[in-house]
Specification:
Blueprint: H1 6-9, E1 11-13, E2 17-20, E3 23-26, E4 29-32, E5 35-42, E6 45-48, E7 78-81, E8 84-87, E9 90-93, E10 154-157, E11 164-168, E12 173-177, E13 210-211, E14 214-215, E15 217-227, E16 231-247, E17 254-263, E18 266-275, E19 281-285, H2 330-347
Antiparallel strand pairs: 1-2, 2-3, 3-4, 4-5, 5-6, 7-8, 8-9, 10-11, 11-12, 13-14, 15-16, 16-17, 17-18, 18-19
Length: about 350
Amino acid sequence: MATWTRETIGLEISSTSLTVDNIKIDGTTIGHTDDTDLLTLASGALTVTGTITSTGTITGTLATAAQTNITSLGTLTALQIDNINLNTNTINATSGDLTITAAGGDISFGDDNLATTGNLDIDGITNLDAVDIDGAVQLDGTLTVGVSDTGYDVKFFGATANSYWLWDQSNNRVRQVGTGQNSFRIETSLASSAVGPGLHLYRNSPSPSGSGGDYDTVGAISFLGTNATDGTDSEVQYSRIRSRILDATKDAEEGEFNIHVRGNGTATQAFAAFGQSDGTADVTIAYGAASVTTIAGDLTVTGGNITVTGAPSYTATTQTARNADTASTAGALQDVVQTLIDDLQTIGILQ
């Protein structure tokens, strides 16, 4: 049997401590000769003032986990850090809001879906590649689609199949498309004498032109359809309403308003009104010598002459004269009108 002495095993004993080589036990502390209080023992607790390095398994509850030297915790079924609880696939804030901050970059959630059952409040700019919203959307700020010089189509569907309202970015125009009876309606519940609803076509030109034949068109409404041969491959303008600037001089502005219709494949001017420098307005009705202008009611001419170019004539359809004392037949009425024309020519009113 070997005999060990205090000197051979490096054992030092005093009345209050025990030292074995570099390990020193002193009262409730266990340490190293260079750091004597690495471990402190108390009732049901072990306090470590240094670093714990483990190559095995540590079980139980880690009371203080705020040390940066804890680099790996292995596989845990649950973890509570202050008010943050991590359990299986759930991260929960047991009190207050949950804040996730990436000081130097993005926060990535992988390729799977990000689902939330509550409100999602995001401050700042949110870049989304594709958005599918199944519920109601409320925007409290400005909605901007695209940037200057780079636009995108915007489409709103109606309740009828294949009916939608489209902002066509490639053509810079709005299209209302559908197979049914489409209509554009502006409605107001205004109860005063103010004008409304209103449709304003505004050409906001910094240098409007209305002289020398270079007249700015300030607005036009075209009525388009197809023809019988080309079908949907054609786009024919059957009529148009247009307004132009004749004179853009401040406080002396003059305008033109005209209506064009298509006849024999060509657009012709059927009506035109021209503002004059004396504050009057000249009007031209119909196009071509063979055109016919029909007035369903009475014609009243005040303040000027009637000038007839060419050989005037009058044709009356069979009708009962309004005044039997003056003319009882259509033929008699025709004679009265023709006599009137002859008299007007004689005195120089008709030419």
